[in-house]
Design brief:
Elements (H helix, E strand, L loop, with lengths): L1 E3 L4 H5 L12 H16 L6 E4 L3 H13 L6 E4 L16 H8 L1 H9 L36 H21 L4 E5 L1 H12 L3 H5 L9 E5 L5 E6 L3 H12 L7
Parallel strand pairs: 1-4, 2-3, 2-4
Antiparallel strand pairs: 5-6
Helix pairs in contact: 2-3, 4-5, 6-7
């Protein structure tokens, strides 16, 4: 099961967030609790949890599991599951960025598979080499900007080494992370093209279930809630860069 974190403070402000460690909003906390209840209703009980190191993902997982009365679970946290690093876009208002650079340019930066946004400038407050969260990560591995291709290259080796073996053992794995780190996994598991994954909208706090056969081929990949409700949440994500009210 994969879940994108609940609505965050910077989602609410409509800012490019990336690696910035922001809190959930009250809405995001309610979304996380709902996700837990949905998994409970569908009899999904995770054996192992994976999250990024960012607190919006961690809190989403904690709240969801609390609703399921799960308080003791094997837990793995890794920066490899962090959101995409938005480089110099980090902290900028999405709609204002569209107004300044144009919808097509921002779409390329935000959703193209292999075009990075501008890199962070030296001295940026978003230089995560100086963040205590990454004190054990060599600065050479911490990006200054990422496209989705870059995210795939950091996420999938970790997935293949640490998560896939557990799935092959038949364990129920819950991954709570971010739109783009999860998109990297979705692309690989579902065999989506570079073009198709660009248009894949992942709603906040909406559980998506995967099932595999003995050869680790995906035999099920879908949300476990009402399709119309899921589509509405996905549209809300898409609207974040719209310039029209």
């Amino acid at each position: 099961m994969i879940i994108r974190h609940g609505f965050s403070e910077w989602n609410e402000k409509n800012l490019f967030t990336g690696w910035v460690d922001v809190e959930l909003t009250d809405q995001g906390r309610q979304e996380a609790k709902r996700a837990g209840l949905v998994m409970l209703e569908h009899n999904f009980t995770p054996d192992v949890l994976f999250t990024s190191v960012l607190k919006r993902a961690i809190e989403t997982a904690d709240l969801a599991l609390s609703e399921m009365n799960i308080n003791d679970i094997e837990t793995n946290r890794t920066w490899r599951l962090n959101e995409r690093h938005y480089g110099a876009l980090t902290g900028l208002d999405k709609k204002k960025t569209v107004e300044q650079y144009g919808e097509e340019q921002v779409k390329l930066w935000r959703r193209s598979f292999d075009i990075e946004p501008p890199e962070l400038e030296d001295g940026s407050p978003y230089d995560f080499c100086k963040d205590i969260l990454y004190s054990d990560v060599p600065c050479s591995l911490i990006p200054k900007a990422e496209c989705l291709k870059d995210v795939c290259e950091r996420v999938m080796p970790y997935f293949d080494e640490n998560i896939a073996p557990l799935l092959l053992e038949g364990k129920n794995v819950l991954i709570v992370a971010h739109g783009n780190s999860l998109r990297a996994i979705i692309k690989e598991l579902e065999g989506l093209s570079n073009e198709d994954i660009v248009n894949f909208e992942l709603p906040t706090a909406t559980p998506r279930l995967y099932a595999f056969d003995d050869e680790f081929k995906v035999v099920r990949a879908d949300y476990i809630e009402d399709p119309e409700e899921v589509a509405s949440r996905a549209q809300a994500v898409k609207n974040q860069t719209a310039t029209q009210k």
